[in-house]
Specification:
The chain has 3 helices and 14 strands. The protein has about 250 residues and is an alpha+beta fold.
Length: about 250
């Protein structure tokens, strides 16, 4: 009885593995067919030769596939286009697109920025910098190998670099602030509580204490460096004014 069950499990395993390989091969063929169809439609609609057009990527967005390509820059009719397919790979339409997805680099060619990479990097920057994704600007893009990118971002008072794969996996995000007055972004209760605590410890008035440096820790915490005429301290505090640690140095 046990031997029979093991034989059945063995057969089911090989059946599922075969179906997985078969479906993967079909998916790859569908993507290849979409690229060929898109080049054909660009030739038919815009009067260019198929051998002068190039497909950059095939990516899935929701229930649709988007195929991005461009006519050769050596052609008199150089432009970029986008084809749309449904979830089964059936052709829907084609249209020309503006040159917003291709950012100039120092080389003569262009670096294509996939939608997934753009969305992941701008989303991470918006969370870290507490601003809307549309307020985050992409300044430069550099490709590392065939599937990785380094994206330089800028926001109000911030600069950052996002290292991410083509599929959207983030390796690293580095950020730094510019030389502006960070006190304008510190909640009033944070400044007041740290100054009041320092004034009580040092025996001075809060107006005699200044904030030399401040940075945000995560979403709701801050590190404030305070000083008076003779004293220095660092205050770790929450957004609501609760002081975790006050250390003098």
């Amino acid at each position: 009885m046990m031997k029979r069950i093991l034989n059945q499990l063995h057969l089911w395993f090989w059946f599922i593995l075969g179906m997985f390989i078969f479906s993967t091969q079909i998916h790859a063929n569908v993507r290849k067919d979409m690229s060929l169809i898109c080049k054909y439609e660009a030739s038919r609609n815009y009067g260019i030769r198929q051998n002068t057009s190039k497909i950059f990527s095939v990516e899935r967005v929701g229930n649709r596939f988007l195929v991005h390509g461009k006519a050769s820059k050596y052609s008199k009719r150089a432009f970029r286009f986008k084809c749309t397919f449904d979830r089964q790979g059936e052709y829907i339409g084609i249209k020309k697109i503006k040159d917003k997805r291709y950012l100039n680099s120092r080389r003569e060619d262009h670096v294509y920025l996939p939608t997934t990479v753009k969305r992941v990097c701008k989303g991470e920057a918006s969370v870290r910098w507490h601003m809307r994704p549309r307020d985050v600007k992409i300044k430069n893009v550099k490709r590392l190998g065939h599937h990785d990118y380094v994206v330089t971002l800028a926001g109000r008072g911030y600069r950052g670099k996002c290292e991410v794969s083509q599929s959207g996996h983030m390796y690293q995000f580095r950020t730094h602030t510019l030389g502006y007055d960070i006190n304008n972004e510190i909640p009033k209760v944070v400044r007041r509580n740290c100054k009041k605590h320092a004034a009580f410890r040092w025996g001075v008035r809060p107006s005699e204490i200044r904030i030399d440096y401040a940075r945000r820790l995560g979403r709701d915490d801050y590190v404030i460096q305070l000083s008076s005429r003779y004293d220095r301290a660092e205050c770790e505090v929450s957004r609501r004014g609760h002081i975790y640690l006050f250390s003098e140095y």
